[in-house]
Write a structure and sequence with these properties.
By secondary structure, the protein is mainly alpha-helical. The chain has a domain of 35 residues. Helices cover 46% and strands 11% of the residues. It has two helices and two strands, in the order ααββ. The protein has a two-stranded antiparallel ribbon. Strand 1 and strand 2 form a beta hairpin. It is extended and about 50 Å long.
């Protein structure tokens, strides 16, 4: 029998395409963590964008030439 999960922690299984899985491996390696860490970071970033947009904030991306554009949806 498996040990119970710590309070508030959920375990789940998810299927990824080979391309997505390779990207997650690359992201994890680049960031010095695990694939689970890369997924948690991606979810946290998505939540940050969502929360900012819900608060009426504008999210901008600036290129090297100083041009900005608004990111509307993530």
């Amino acid at each position: 029998m498996a040990a119970p999960n710590p309070e508030g922690v959920r375990r789940f299984s998810v299927n990824f395409s080979e391309e997505t899985y390779k990207f997650l491996q690359e992201l994890a390696k680049t960031r010095g963590g695990s694939i689970a860490d890369a997924l948690r970071d991606a979810i946290a970033l998505t939540k940050w964008f969502k929360d900012a947009q819900e608060q009426g904030k504008t999210i901008l991306v600036e290129d090297r030439n100083g041009r900005q554009r608004e990111v509307m949806r993530i």
